[in-house]
Amino acid sequence: MEAAELPDPAPGPGQLLVKLEAAGVNFIDVYQRTGLYAVPMPYTLGLEGAGRIEAMGPGVEGLAVGARVAWSTSPGSYATYALVAAEKAVPVPAGIAGEAAAEAMLQGMTAHYLARATYPLKAGDACIVHAAAGGVGLLLIQLAKLAGARVLGTVSTPEKAQLAREAGADEVVLYSRDDFVAAAKQWTGGSGVQVVYDSVGKDTFERSLDCLARRGMLVLYGQSSGPVGPFDLQVLYAKGSLFVTRPTLFHYTASREELLARAGEVFDWIAAGRLKLRIGARFPLDQAAEAHRQLEARLTTGKVLLIP
Questions:
Q1: Domains of the chain, with CATH numbers?
Q2: How is 128-151 classified by DSSP, letter by letter?
Q3: What is the pTM for the complete model shown?
Protein backbone atom coordinates (compact mmCIF):
# COMPACT_ATOMS: atom_id res chain seq x y z
CA MET A 1 0.00 0.00 0.00
CA GLU A 2 1.10 3.55 -0.64
CA ALA A 3 -0.45 6.97 -0.15
CA ALA A 4 -1.20 8.92 -3.33
CA GLU A 5 -2.64 12.30 -4.22
CA LEU A 6 -5.69 11.92 -6.46
CA PRO A 7 -8.32 14.40 -7.70
CA ASP A 8 -11.36 14.73 -5.46
CA PRO A 9 -14.02 12.35 -6.84
CA ALA A 10 -17.41 13.55 -8.06
CA PRO A 11 -20.54 11.66 -6.98
CA GLY A 12 -22.50 9.86 -9.67
CA PRO A 13 -26.12 8.72 -9.57
CA GLY A 14 -27.03 7.32 -6.15
CA GLN A 15 -23.69 8.30 -4.63
CA LEU A 16 -22.52 10.56 -1.81
CA LEU A 17 -19.22 12.41 -1.62
CA VAL A 18 -18.19 12.15 2.03
CA LYS A 19 -15.33 13.87 3.83
CA LEU A 20 -14.09 11.22 6.24
CA GLU A 21 -13.70 11.69 9.98
CA ALA A 22 -12.41 8.14 10.51
CA ALA A 23 -11.99 4.90 8.58
CA GLY A 24 -12.13 1.47 10.18
CA VAL A 25 -9.35 -1.07 9.68
CA ASN A 26 -10.60 -4.66 9.56
CA PHE A 27 -9.29 -8.10 8.67
CA ILE A 28 -11.33 -8.08 5.49
CA ASP A 29 -9.01 -5.27 4.33
CA VAL A 30 -6.05 -7.58 4.99
CA TYR A 31 -7.71 -10.38 3.02
CA GLN A 32 -8.21 -8.00 0.09
CA ARG A 33 -4.66 -6.67 0.28
CA THR A 34 -3.10 -10.13 0.31
CA GLY A 35 -5.28 -11.43 -2.51
CA LEU A 36 -7.23 -13.92 -0.41
CA TYR A 37 -10.30 -11.93 -1.51
CA ALA A 38 -9.76 -10.78 -5.10
CA VAL A 39 -10.38 -7.09 -5.90
CA PRO A 40 -9.70 -5.09 -9.08
CA MET A 41 -6.37 -3.24 -9.12
CA PRO A 42 -5.52 -0.48 -8.41
CA TYR A 43 -7.82 -0.45 -5.40
CA THR A 44 -8.49 1.85 -2.46
CA LEU A 45 -9.00 -0.29 0.62
CA GLY A 46 -11.48 0.33 3.41
CA LEU A 47 -15.11 -0.78 3.58
CA GLU A 48 -15.98 1.11 6.76
CA GLY A 49 -15.99 4.78 7.64
CA ALA A 50 -17.85 7.81 8.93
CA GLY A 51 -17.93 11.44 7.89
CA ARG A 52 -19.94 14.37 6.60
CA ILE A 53 -21.71 14.58 3.23
CA GLU A 54 -20.04 17.17 0.96
CA ALA A 55 -22.08 16.57 -2.21
CA MET A 56 -24.74 14.22 -3.56
CA GLY A 57 -25.29 12.70 -6.98
CA PRO A 58 -28.60 12.54 -8.82
CA GLY A 59 -31.32 10.36 -7.38
CA VAL A 60 -30.29 10.49 -3.72
CA GLU A 61 -33.25 10.92 -1.38
CA GLY A 62 -33.62 11.15 2.39
CA LEU A 63 -30.14 12.62 2.99
CA ALA A 64 -28.73 16.14 2.85
CA VAL A 65 -25.41 17.89 2.34
CA GLY A 66 -23.82 18.47 5.74
CA ALA A 67 -25.41 15.40 7.35
CA ARG A 68 -23.18 12.86 9.08
CA VAL A 69 -23.27 9.27 7.86
CA ALA A 70 -21.46 5.99 8.44
CA TRP A 71 -21.13 2.82 6.35
CA SER A 72 -19.63 -0.65 6.43
CA THR A 73 -19.90 -2.20 2.98
CA SER A 74 -18.91 0.55 0.55
CA PRO A 75 -15.26 0.46 -0.62
CA GLY A 76 -12.71 3.26 -0.72
CA SER A 77 -12.66 4.46 2.89
CA TYR A 78 -8.85 4.73 3.23
CA ALA A 79 -9.10 8.27 1.90
CA THR A 80 -9.81 11.88 2.73
CA TYR A 81 -12.89 11.85 0.50
CA ALA A 82 -14.87 8.74 -0.45
CA LEU A 83 -17.72 7.98 -2.78
CA VAL A 84 -20.34 6.08 -0.81
CA ALA A 85 -23.41 4.35 -2.19
CA ALA A 86 -26.32 6.22 -0.63
CA GLU A 87 -28.18 2.95 0.02
CA LYS A 88 -25.25 1.82 2.20
CA ALA A 89 -25.04 5.03 4.25
CA VAL A 90 -26.61 5.18 7.71
CA PRO A 91 -27.40 8.53 9.37
CA VAL A 92 -25.31 9.04 12.51
CA PRO A 93 -27.37 10.15 15.53
CA ALA A 94 -26.45 13.36 17.30
CA GLY A 95 -24.09 12.69 20.18
CA ILE A 96 -22.27 9.82 18.44
CA ALA A 97 -18.74 10.91 17.50
CA GLY A 98 -17.26 10.08 14.11
CA GLU A 99 -14.76 7.62 15.55
CA ALA A 100 -17.49 5.81 17.47
CA ALA A 101 -19.68 5.71 14.37
CA ALA A 102 -16.88 4.13 12.35
CA GLU A 103 -16.38 1.48 15.02
CA ALA A 104 -20.08 0.77 15.36
CA MET A 105 -20.63 -0.15 11.74
CA LEU A 106 -18.69 -3.21 10.58
CA GLN A 107 -17.64 -4.57 13.96
CA GLY A 108 -20.72 -3.45 15.87
CA MET A 109 -23.16 -4.86 13.33
CA THR A 110 -21.08 -8.03 13.00
CA ALA A 111 -21.36 -8.64 16.74
CA HIS A 112 -25.08 -7.86 16.47
CA TYR A 113 -25.89 -10.37 13.74
CA LEU A 114 -23.69 -13.06 15.29
CA ALA A 115 -25.37 -12.85 18.69
CA ARG A 116 -28.90 -12.01 17.53
CA ALA A 117 -29.34 -13.84 14.21
CA THR A 118 -26.71 -16.44 13.26
CA TYR A 119 -26.99 -18.14 16.65
CA PRO A 120 -29.50 -16.14 18.72
CA LEU A 121 -28.08 -16.33 22.23
CA LYS A 122 -30.49 -16.76 25.12
CA ALA A 123 -30.33 -16.96 28.89
CA GLY A 124 -28.52 -20.07 30.03
CA ASP A 125 -26.46 -20.56 26.86
CA ALA A 126 -22.71 -20.97 27.12
CA CYS A 127 -20.52 -19.65 24.30
CA ILE A 128 -16.87 -19.28 23.35
CA VAL A 129 -15.57 -16.06 21.82
CA HIS A 130 -12.17 -16.45 20.20
CA ALA A 131 -9.98 -13.33 19.85
CA ALA A 132 -12.02 -11.96 22.73
CA ALA A 133 -10.01 -8.73 23.06
CA GLY A 134 -10.38 -7.80 19.40
CA GLY A 135 -12.83 -5.27 18.07
CA VAL A 136 -15.67 -7.72 17.43
CA GLY A 137 -14.72 -9.90 20.40
CA LEU A 138 -15.16 -7.18 23.02
CA LEU A 139 -18.53 -6.17 21.56
CA LEU A 140 -19.69 -9.77 21.18
CA ILE A 141 -18.95 -10.47 24.84
CA GLN A 142 -21.15 -7.55 25.85
CA LEU A 143 -24.03 -8.61 23.60
CA ALA A 144 -23.81 -12.17 24.92
CA LYS A 145 -24.09 -10.90 28.48
CA LEU A 146 -27.06 -8.70 27.53
CA ALA A 147 -28.76 -11.89 26.29
CA GLY A 148 -28.05 -13.67 29.58
CA ALA A 149 -25.46 -16.08 28.18
CA ARG A 150 -22.20 -17.18 29.79
CA VAL A 151 -18.97 -16.37 27.95
CA LEU A 152 -15.58 -18.06 27.80
CA GLY A 153 -13.12 -15.86 25.92
CA THR A 154 -9.79 -16.91 24.44
CA VAL A 155 -6.87 -14.46 24.15
CA SER A 156 -3.10 -14.52 23.71
CA THR A 157 -1.80 -12.33 26.56
CA PRO A 158 -2.66 -11.47 30.18
CA GLU A 159 -3.30 -7.85 29.13
CA LYS A 160 -5.90 -8.99 26.61
CA ALA A 161 -7.40 -11.31 29.21
CA GLN A 162 -8.00 -8.32 31.47
CA LEU A 163 -9.81 -6.47 28.67
CA ALA A 164 -12.04 -9.50 28.03
CA ARG A 165 -12.92 -9.73 31.72
CA GLU A 166 -13.69 -6.01 31.85
CA ALA A 167 -16.09 -6.53 28.91
CA GLY A 168 -17.92 -9.18 30.96
CA ALA A 169 -16.36 -12.54 30.10
CA ASP A 170 -17.08 -15.11 32.80
CA GLU A 171 -13.93 -17.13 32.05
CA VAL A 172 -10.82 -16.33 30.01
CA VAL A 173 -8.24 -18.75 28.61
CA LEU A 174 -4.79 -17.84 27.33
CA TYR A 175 -4.67 -20.11 24.29
CA SER A 176 -0.92 -19.53 23.99
CA ARG A 177 -0.49 -21.28 27.34
CA ASP A 178 -3.56 -23.40 28.13
CA ASP A 179 -5.78 -25.86 26.24
CA PHE A 180 -9.07 -24.08 25.58
CA VAL A 181 -10.84 -27.38 24.77
CA ALA A 182 -10.06 -28.80 28.21
CA ALA A 183 -11.01 -25.48 29.80
CA ALA A 184 -14.35 -25.41 27.97
CA LYS A 185 -15.20 -28.96 29.00
CA GLN A 186 -14.34 -28.26 32.64
CA TRP A 187 -16.24 -24.95 32.58
CA THR A 188 -19.41 -26.66 31.30
CA GLY A 189 -19.17 -29.78 33.42
CA GLY A 190 -18.28 -31.84 30.38
CA SER A 191 -21.32 -30.95 28.28
CA GLY A 192 -19.71 -28.38 25.98
CA VAL A 193 -20.91 -24.98 24.78
CA GLN A 194 -23.89 -24.21 22.54
CA VAL A 195 -21.88 -22.02 20.15
CA VAL A 196 -18.31 -21.04 19.31
CA TYR A 197 -17.77 -17.68 17.59
CA ASP A 198 -14.50 -18.11 15.70
CA SER A 199 -12.71 -15.37 13.75
CA VAL A 200 -9.32 -17.11 13.86
CA GLY A 201 -9.92 -19.95 11.40
CA LYS A 202 -7.18 -22.47 10.63
CA ASP A 203 -5.54 -22.54 14.07
CA THR A 204 -8.75 -23.01 16.06
CA PHE A 205 -11.33 -24.61 13.77
CA GLU A 206 -10.95 -28.32 14.54
CA ARG A 207 -10.47 -27.84 18.28
CA SER A 208 -13.47 -25.52 18.38
CA LEU A 209 -15.63 -28.41 17.19
CA ASP A 210 -14.46 -30.38 20.23
CA CYS A 211 -15.82 -27.66 22.53
CA LEU A 212 -19.40 -27.96 21.30
CA ALA A 213 -22.33 -29.59 23.01
CA ARG A 214 -24.53 -32.00 21.07
CA ARG A 215 -26.13 -30.13 18.13
CA GLY A 216 -23.94 -27.11 18.87
CA MET A 217 -22.90 -24.56 16.25
CA LEU A 218 -19.48 -23.34 15.13
CA VAL A 219 -19.79 -19.85 13.63
CA LEU A 220 -16.70 -19.18 11.53
CA TYR A 221 -16.83 -15.47 10.71
CA GLY A 222 -13.14 -14.79 10.00
CA GLN A 223 -9.78 -16.40 9.32
CA SER A 224 -7.02 -14.29 10.84
CA SER A 225 -4.72 -17.34 11.07
CA GLY A 226 -5.53 -18.47 7.53
CA PRO A 227 -8.38 -20.23 5.73
CA VAL A 228 -9.71 -23.57 6.93
CA GLY A 229 -8.70 -26.45 4.66
CA PRO A 230 -10.89 -29.18 3.14
CA PHE A 231 -13.17 -30.67 5.74
CA ASP A 232 -14.90 -34.06 6.05
CA LEU A 233 -18.56 -33.43 6.88
CA GLN A 234 -18.82 -36.88 8.49
CA VAL A 235 -16.93 -35.38 11.44
CA LEU A 236 -20.02 -33.32 12.28
CA TYR A 237 -22.25 -36.29 13.01
CA ALA A 238 -19.45 -38.15 14.80
CA LYS A 239 -18.98 -35.25 17.21
CA GLY A 240 -22.68 -34.81 18.00
CA SER A 241 -24.70 -33.71 14.92
CA LEU A 242 -22.95 -30.36 14.89
CA PHE A 243 -23.60 -27.30 12.72
CA VAL A 244 -20.99 -25.15 10.97
CA THR A 245 -21.73 -21.85 9.22
CA ARG A 246 -19.61 -19.20 7.48
CA PRO A 247 -21.62 -15.95 7.64
CA THR A 248 -20.76 -12.48 6.40
CA LEU A 249 -22.17 -9.06 7.26
CA PHE A 250 -23.11 -8.43 3.62
CA HIS A 251 -25.83 -11.07 3.83
CA TYR A 252 -27.17 -9.75 7.14
CA THR A 253 -27.55 -6.17 5.85
CA ALA A 254 -28.73 -7.08 2.35
CA SER A 255 -31.79 -4.85 2.43
CA ARG A 256 -31.93 -1.17 3.34
CA GLU A 257 -34.50 -1.97 6.04
CA GLU A 258 -32.29 -4.59 7.71
CA LEU A 259 -29.24 -2.32 7.54
CA LEU A 260 -31.02 0.57 9.22
CA ALA A 261 -32.60 -1.65 11.86
CA ARG A 262 -29.33 -3.38 12.77
CA ALA A 263 -27.27 -0.18 12.80
CA GLY A 264 -30.01 1.68 14.64
CA GLU A 265 -30.08 -0.84 17.48
CA VAL A 266 -26.29 -0.71 17.81
CA PHE A 267 -26.34 3.10 17.93
CA ASP A 268 -29.15 3.02 20.51
CA TRP A 269 -27.13 0.69 22.77
CA ILE A 270 -24.07 2.94 22.48
CA ALA A 271 -26.08 6.06 23.31
CA ALA A 272 -27.66 4.32 26.31
CA GLY A 273 -24.28 3.14 27.61
CA ARG A 274 -25.23 -0.53 27.24
CA LEU A 275 -22.52 -1.16 24.62
CA LYS A 276 -19.10 0.27 25.41
CA LEU A 277 -16.61 0.88 22.61
CA ARG A 278 -12.85 0.56 22.80
CA ILE A 279 -10.61 2.27 20.27
CA GLY A 280 -7.31 0.48 20.66
CA ALA A 281 -5.22 2.34 18.08
CA ARG A 282 -5.40 5.36 15.81
CA PHE A 283 -3.07 5.83 12.84
CA PRO A 284 -2.72 8.73 10.41
CA LEU A 285 -4.04 7.80 6.98
CA ASP A 286 -0.56 7.57 5.44
CA GLN A 287 0.38 4.93 8.04
CA ALA A 288 -2.20 2.41 6.84
CA ALA A 289 0.53 -0.15 6.12
CA GLU A 290 1.71 -0.01 9.73
CA ALA A 291 -1.88 -0.41 10.92
CA HIS A 292 -2.08 -3.62 8.87
CA ARG A 293 1.24 -4.88 10.24
CA GLN A 294 0.10 -4.44 13.83
CA LEU A 295 -3.34 -5.93 13.20
CA GLU A 296 -1.88 -9.01 11.50
CA ALA A 297 0.69 -9.46 14.29
CA ARG A 298 -2.17 -9.36 16.84
CA LEU A 299 -0.61 -6.40 18.58
CA THR A 300 -3.87 -4.44 18.67
CA THR A 301 -6.96 -4.60 20.85
CA GLY A 302 -10.39 -3.16 20.26
CA LYS A 303 -10.90 -1.02 17.17
CA VAL A 304 -8.15 0.18 14.83
CA LEU A 305 -8.88 3.45 13.03
CA LEU A 306 -7.26 5.54 10.32
CA ILE A 307 -7.65 9.32 10.78
CA PRO A 308 -7.38 11.45 7.61
A1: 15-105+250-307 (3.90.180.10), 123-246 (3.40.50.720)
A2: EESSTTBHHHHHHHHHHHHTT-EE
A3: 0.91
